[in-house]
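Sequence, please.
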């Protein structure tokens, strides 16, 4: 027997990682008082995730519960 498989699907677009990091430092000592990070993956050209939507999602995740962490 012979089998042939042809993948006719389009290749997926590039996966993009966007990260937001924040550090709050004491001005006098320079010590870090609080820091946080948030990141998310999206696909290149995804209409749902424009720059504003990504920034809003990351900021909400980063500061959720601030300053209790």
């Amino acid at each position: 027997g012979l089998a042939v498989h042809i993948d006719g699907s389009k290749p997926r677009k590039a996966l993009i990682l966007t990260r937001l990091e924040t550090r709050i430092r004491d001005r006098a000592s320079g010590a870090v008082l609080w820091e946080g990070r948030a990141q998310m993956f999206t696909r290149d050209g995804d209409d749902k995730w424009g720059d504003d939507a990504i920034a809003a999602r990351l900021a909400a995740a980063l500061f959720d519960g601030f300053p209790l962490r």
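The chain has a mean pLDDT of 91.
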